[in-house]
Structure formats: C-alpha cells, structure tokens
Write a structure and sequence with these properties.
Elements (H helix, E strand, L loop, with lengths): L1 H5 L2 H45 L3 E9 L2 E10 L4 E7 L4 E3 L6 E6 L4 E6 L1 H16 L8 E7 L4 E2 L8 E2 L3 H5 L2 H4 L5 H14 L2 H15 L2 H49 L2 E5 L3 E5 L34
Parallel strand pairs: 3-7, 4-8, 7-9
Antiparallel strand pairs: 1-2, 2-3, 4-5, 5-6, 10-11
Helix pairs in contact: 2-8
Amino acid sequence: MMLVQDGLVLPVLRLLAACIGAMLVTSCLTLLFRPALIGWGGEKAVRQALARLGLPALHDVVLADTLGHAQIDHLVRTAQGIMVIETKAFAGWITGTLYGAQWVQHLAGSRIRHGFQNPVRQNHRHCKAVEVAIGGLAVQVQVHSLVVSAGRARYCEALEAVPMPVAALGRLVGNTPWVARVDTGEMAAAWTRLEALARRTPELRRLHRAEVRVRRLPEQVLTARMAWALLPVGVLLVMVGVAPMCSGARSKCGRRAIKGRFRHKLGFLATLDDGASETWHRPMALPAAPALNHRKRPRAGLWAKTADDLAPGRG
C-alpha cells in the first residue's frame, strides 16, 4: 500500500524484471558456452606446457577417418613417434571403467551427474585417424595415445592412473626414452604430411560440427534449444527494466547540460518571483557613464558639448 501511494510500483517492477532477465541471460550463456570455455582453458594449459618443452606440435586439428571426421586436441612430434593428446578439464568426481563406453561426472555431492564419452576410446579413434592420414608410414612411425587432465577432477581407483596431470606432462615427454632416438626420414615425412592436412582444418571444421550435432543426445539437444529460446526473453526483460532508467537519467543530464550552456552563454539567471512569474536579471551590472560636474564647464573633448549644442540643427 505504501508503494502504491508513493508511486514506486512501476520502478520496483522494472527492477524486478531486470534482475530476472539478468539471471536468465546468465543461465543460458552458462549452458551454451561454459563447457566450450572450460575445454578451451584446458587445451591452452597443455599448449603452454608443450611450448615450454620446445617440441613441434599441432593444435586443434581436424582429420578425416573411416567414420567421418575427428577433432584432435594436440599432435606432438617426439623422437619415438607421434603423440596424440586428448585434453579433459573436468571437475568433481569421475567414475567409470577403462574400456567402458562412458565415464560419469559427479557434482554437488553426487546430486548432479553427467555422462560423457570415455576419453580413452575417443583418443583411440584419433590415433586411427592419424594412422589413416600418414598412410603407409604408420608401419615405421609409432602413434601413441595420451589423455591429459587439465582440471581439478578426482578419479576413482579404476581410473586414477589413466589421465595424466598437466604438471607431469613435461616429465613424461622430456624423459630420456622419448628424446634418445634420432628422428628418421619416415618420421619427418609423416610430420610433413600431418602439417599439410592440418592446414585444411578450417574447411573440415564445419563438417565435423555437423557430425557432432547428429551424435548429440536428445536431452542435450532439448537443453540447447531451450537455452537459445530463453536467451532473447532474458535480454528483453533486462532492456524493459533498464532502458527507462537510462533514458530518464540521460534526459535529465541533457537538460542540465543545455541549461548550463544557456546560462554560460547568455549570462542570465532564471528565478521565480513568488512562485508565479519568471523575472530575468543580469548577473553583471553595466558600467555606469562618467558623472558630470555641473559646477564647472567640461573641458574640450568627449563631454565638451552641452545639451543645447546637441539639439537638432546644431553642432
């Protein structure tokens, strides 16, 4: 009742709409882009670790295989072969088996569960794609699979030794068995072929994304569609709540600026006389004319002429 009397109902509703819209926009953006951003952060950590080792590497490569197209996070050229790295940046508690189709991520005390493809099986397909890419050189060049954990996830006992932390990547790659051998001609030819295929990644990325959309689960498709549908609603609520306040503040500032320029240029001050009419006063008084001494006749000059001399027909 107090809000109605004070005229605060509309501002409160606008503020409530802006808050609901902001929460809706944040939730939709989190559902749509948070997994990709987390994965990008993990791949960046692995990329920096490989750069510190000084080994030749290819990142985010799309290769064609017998099942379509495969996206490989990192390809590293070592003295013993080509290392195919799959990066995972998960959090929470991870359970599963080494050869199972899926692993399960447990969040918020196991109240939230997310299933995802077994990265060991996923990277096995990536290794096969590399073997297809290098062709007959796969007989002489070995292709190794490695899963790297770039997140804060903890793994169950059956999976504890499978993912390698990013900090241990340098110790593995920089170990003596990996750098003891000298690169052969087959290794150089295989790496040159992979570099040439990596330059075609922008062309193949669209095909790979289409294949990923087809393989998505129905609940994932429904969640993505709902997020894209609710995102404009949240933006509209934010605009409805914030736009009137911004326009009011902008018009108020505009009126103040115009009024300030008007006063500065003209030198007038507007005041209200008894709250009814407006009277205008000059803030600066005009210089007064020099006073005449009537007792003495003015000297010759500016005030030499008298009033009679200024009469019409004289002077």
